[in-house]
Amino acid sequence: MGALPVFRWRLAPDGLATRRQLRARGLRPGGQDVVAQLERPRRRRGPLVAYLYRVDRAKPVRPMTPAKWAALAKANAARRICPECQRDAGYVIPPSLGMCATCAFPDEQRAA
Predict the structure, then answer these.
(1) CA distance 5 to 24
(2) Nearest-angstrom CA–CA distance, 51 and 4
(3) Are 29 and 53 in contact (CB under 8 A)?
(4) Cut 0.70: pTM above it
(5) pLDDT number for residue 20
């Protein structure tokens, strides 16, 4: 495989799109290889890089099945359960705390 063509930010030719742009159109790369890359220069750091895919080779996004919806709902519910008190916190528990606010800051809850 040779080197990929590199385009500057906002100068990619028509017919090429990033993953996010494909997704916005209801498409996915569908197993095709990257055909080019897009670079956005930054000060004091290396450029941001985005890979480009051909739009004409992209495939439609697979629809969500009832089983996938159920698995997603179960995963999101698990993120709301406090591992300390085993209650539904009513919000997604932040990974920085690892537990609900009531368990993380018990002194503040008693004072209120």
Answers:
(1) 24
(2) 10
(3) yes
(4) no
(5) 96
